[in-house]
Hints:
By secondary structure, the protein is an alpha/beta fold. Helix content is 28%, strand content 17%. The chain is built from 18 helices and 18 strands.
Amino acid sequence: MASQPVSRMLRRVLRSSVRGCSSGAPVTQPRPGEPSQSASEELSRRRQFLREFAAPFSAFLTDSFGRHHSYLRISLTEKCNLRCQYCMPAEGVPLTPKADLLTTEEILTLARLFVKEGVDKIRLTGGEPLIRPDVVDIVAQLHQLEGLRTIGVTTNGINLARLLPQLQKAGLNAINISLDTLVPAKFEFIVRRKGFHKVMEGIHKAIELGYNPVKVNCVVMRGLNEDELLDFVALTEGLPLDMRFIEYMPFDGNKWNFKKMVSYKEMLDTLRQQWPELEKLPEEESSTAKAFKIPGFRGQVSFITSMSEHFCGTCNRLRITADGNLKVCLFGNSEVSLRDHLRAGASEEELLRIIGAAVGRKKRQHAGMFNISQMKNRPMVLIELFLMLQDSPPALPNTSSWDPLGIQGLRHRPSVSNQVSTLWKRCLIPQTCPFAQRQLGSGSPQRHYSSHPDSDTNPKCLSPKSQASASHSGTLPTSDQLTHVDTEGRAAMVDVGSKPDTERVAVASAMVLLGPVAFKLVQENQLKKGDALVVAQLAGIQAAKLTSQLIPLCHHVALSHVQVRLELDSTRHAVVIQASCRAQGPTGVEMEALTSAAVAALTLYDMCKAVSRDIVLGEIKLISKTGGQRGDYHRT
Length: 636
């Protein structure tokens, strides 16, 4: 670690009676050469601390509470090739003009300055850092900085397998990969993009190249992926992974809800029911993670307790955003522009004063989860891809009396870890990973769920009222011959090789009569398993994609669109399901639509069966079909 003589550090920090800048918003930040502001109470306390407890570490990176900031996170870009729900809104975020982003030389200039003052670890973040064209060159130049011991990257893994050999050669020696589910369909739902197998390939490549541990970050959200905790942990039996479970954190645009957050203690209880021998590992200095290990397992498990048990007291992190602002706290909304001062020709001494003032004003801890959720702050993608800081836990709802994950009745499967590890080594996935359950908070009397963001205005999405009035718009001639048997009466798949490719669309529906008790729980989103409508919608989407694997003589169809809509019918205490599928090809998609509606209905039954056994599934039917040789069909 780079260090300086104590006398030199104290001369710098005490050189003038006032600081030359504020750690607040850039509008209050004096430009180089302007009169500096009066010393704050925090600065006085900081000076007193340094007089009494001066240590061989840069005074400019030591705050008024004695925390040494030796870890710098640099965002290389605001852009990302995914749209993770906890990180940014679906519509994306306004991006900073390219001219206002830090150049490569500016990034390296700031990195040199921080390393010279004592930073010994730099992590490159984003957005997604690996989409920056010169990321390998940046790593190589950082590797030349004397005193820098660790260069890491936090990535979504999409480009990792392709770039990692070059990055390793350039000097990258730490990797964090984001992965929130082991179910491909759920992955697409969470990140709003494809790419699951590319992430798996990236993790496999990191293990192959000898990274140990390979850190895997998983943001845990109630009703979405907390049911996969055991599957993730099982991977650490045969693989050198540090499986890091992160409490869901509030940022602009991610619609944070306390009910979505699964606390560290709840996750730990879940794991200990499965592995009572789980043991805690000693905590490293300034670590953000609480680490645990199952005896005999190669890897370990960690928890980032930003929301329920903050680690502000040992925080040693600073952040530079892609547009050059210094953030001393992930959850703070105060920033100071280093870019503006660099471009105004500030000297190294002036930059150190600016940095020192910002660090000196860093608060003891952040505002707490509920206050944070109300604060104006950047969306996470504009800061970086994850991690850090929080407040004392509030009174949590009592969860000990019920078992939302079904863990209490789960029996250990000795072979699960070996099976999953083998699949991972082949860049595949466990086939038995359960579907998530998602709880979005208390429901409203008119709840509905649709897989289409504009479903309320989509003319192809029929409501229960419009179904009754649907009519024929064409003919659908039937045949007096079964098409799936040969001349000898044996089952056979129809040959569609000579049929032309046309756009095929089909809509199917189903109804689930829940009864008044189960209906009310679904309507108010009070089922202990989670949000039944969301789980059913996910199941319907996956079922449509897997129809050819469920129905033996169905052709595999490359669907271009699947939409599942569920609406509550209070007059019949029922849920009306409608599934529509679209594809370009030689065969229709009515089976995909029917399978989607049927599986969504079965999933609703499964979600509600603990409440009532009188649930009735019915009215599974084709509503419309277009694009086939026999003409269009619309049910009367």
